[in-house]
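User: I'll paste a sequence; please echo it back and then give the predicted structure.

Assistant: Echoing your sequence first, then the prediction.
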Amino acid sequence: KLGCEEIFDMIRARWPETLFVSTADEGVGALGRHIPNLEHVLSRAWTPAELRLAAAAACRTFSLRRENERLSLEMRVRAPLRRADPVNNDGLGFEAILRVPGSPMVAVINSSRQYATFDITVLLVGEPGTEKATLAEAIHLASLRSEKPFLSFDCSGLSVEAIATALFGTARGCGTSSAARAGVIRKADHGSLYLSGLETLSPEMQLRILRLVRDGSYEQLGSHDVHSSGARFIFSATEDPRQLVDRGAFRADLYFALSVAELHVPSLRERRADLPLLARSIAEDMGRLHSKGVRGISEDALCFMSGYAWPGNLRELENEITRMLIHTQDPVLGADL
């Protein structure tokens, strides 16, 4: 029989690009320091779902490395190489959204997969920091438009003129520029455009968005020429548009035009079962980003986190784990932090 170390040495010798996923018992203790391509370390109480997600993440990393090598080679020889057949992105983007079996995100992602295959407008409703942008990009990657551009624009906090300029563009001679300027709607043509901050739009902008959603038409600033967009639109709001309609703050006809495919993205306090998986993943990502060795989060710390409401959702969780990372002197983040 071969020991773990002999098996790793044999694999590295034959396939040096191999990425490894290990358990804390096998990988970190005896072998972790000797595995150059150790991609992920599972907790001692790992589940099959965590193993599947870790393997999928390693596959994505491997593919990205291969693509980077290909691009570097193209730049060195200054001649484009023949590209491989396009990768089928169906499901790839959804794998970036971590969840465990039974999580409320499972039903959301299942519905998103169905909506992705239909060329329709999608409305995402959820609190800030609930991965709506990630979900929107996953829908794009699983659609027939996956080879086309995916662009995003946040309307929050901007004036009507600033939003109109960014979305629709400006005609020649409008403002200080003598040349026409394309907006993000034009740039996303035949691809997907994700627009967040829907609840902040003024009545005037709501009317222009309604026209855009209904027949794809819009006008640039400084021109009366009507342009047509072939983009697919994914909108998001942090407040339920139905309540805004009831208060008279949102056009009912625009809401009904958007609500063919409406998804409510759960908050982190509704995803308590996902929190250990999310926290460990964020700790690993932040550790790599800041070049600080981290081997996980203690069970006591995870229990402490599970008792908190997380009003800032995943953004707050990421900020908190980053703060823990800054203050820790131990490779395992503990509850004392």
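Residues 48-77 form the longest helix (30 residues). The first strand starts at residue 20 and ends at 23.
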